[in-house]
Structure formats: C-alpha cells, structure tokens
Amino acid sequence: MTKKVTIGRRPTAGAPPAAGADAWVGAGAEKLAETPAADVKMKRLTIDIPESLHRTIKSQCAMRGTKIADEVRDLLVQKYETP
Questions:
Q1: Cα separation of 72 and 80, whole Å?
Q2: What is the pLDDT of residues 30-74, one digit of tens each?
Q3: Domain containing 77: what range?
Q4: What is the CA radius of gyration of the chain?
Q5: Region entry Disordered: which residue ranges (predicted)?
Q6: 54 in a domain, yes or no?
Q7: 57: which residues sit within 8 A by CB, 6+ positions away?
C-alpha cells in the first residue's frame, strides 16, 4: 500500500506581478546613487578603538540614522583631503 501525495501549483504561479514589486526594485536605485563613484578604487581600513568609544559612536549614528563607516569616512575626508 503506497500513499501518493500530490503537490499543487505554486500560489504565485500565474498570479499577476505585485504592484509593489516595481516600487521595491526602484527603491534600490536610490541606494546606488549614494555609493561612491565606480571609478574611485576603495581600500578597507581596520582600526582598533576602545569599546566605550565604539558604543558611543554606534548610538549616535543610530540616533541620526547614519552608518558608522559613512561618518568615519566623512571625518577622514575633512582631515586629510586637500582642497
């Protein structure tokens, strides 16, 4: 005695694409505009900082809605970029 289980069609098969899908895909274009230019070669910088300083920076960035890397990058540009 063998039990056969049939699996129906996927729920999304044949369904029209969601209207929100285009908006979701378009939202990615905004993030691409924020990234540095493609012709600028980036290098990774690793530093050791005290845990308390990291905690302070992280909480301040969270309150502002920014990323730590972006804030540190801005500080380095202010300090070392020539006019």
A1: 12
A2: 665 565 566 889 899 999 999 999 999 999 999 999 999 999 999
A3: 43-83
A4: 24
A5: 1-20
A6: yes
A7: 49, 68, 71, 72
Residue 16 lies in a domain: no
**Token code pair at residue 74:** 């801005």
CB-CB contact of 57 with 68 (8 Å): yes
pLDDT, greater one: 75 or 82: 75
pTM above 0.70, yes or no: no
Taking each helix axis as running N to C, give the angle between helix 51-64 and helix 68-80, from 0 to 180 degrees, rounded to the nearest 10. Answer: 100
Question: Which structure tokens are listed for 14?
Answer: 């044949």
Task: Output the CA torsion 18→20→21→22 (10° steps).
Answer: 120
CA distance 68 to 74: 10
Spacing of C-alpha 79 from chain mean position = 26
- 9: confidence class by pLDDT, cuts 50, 70, 90: confident
- Model confidence at 7: pLDDT above 70: yes
